[in-house]
Amino acid sequence: MAIRLYHVMSTDSESPYEFFGGEPFFERLVELFYERVAKDPVLRPMYPHGDLTPARRRLTMFLEQYWGGPGTYSEERGHPRLRMRHAGFHIDSGARDRWLAAMYEAILEMGMTPEAEKLLWQYLVGAAIAMQNVVDDAPPAGAIDVTEV
Description:
Layout lengths: L15 H5 L1 H16 L15 H14 L5 H6 L4 H5 L6 H18 L3 H18 L18
């Protein structure tokens, strides 16, 4: 069974996946995101050495499915179980914020409408917070304000 977002959009016939621009949108967003991950000294070591293509494909499929597109992610990988899949990685607020910063820069480069940007950002912030698996005593210096946008 595919896990999907059920969110009321401006029309009954348009899914969030279509609202964002479908496959080309998600492929480009994830491409821009992973360009940043590849250069990030905290995020890059969390991925296998070498090609990031498999990770890009998985994130693209997940986001497409979540927003109402094809259910390929679940067909190939089963239930997303995001917390379980990320449990082996040290994700503190610093790593979380670096992930969000890379994604936010990618979002800005997409030239989205404010409505679309806000909708996507709100989801990503919640998802990133849910993936944090190391408790911090206090926010690190320079932590981003995840409530902005």
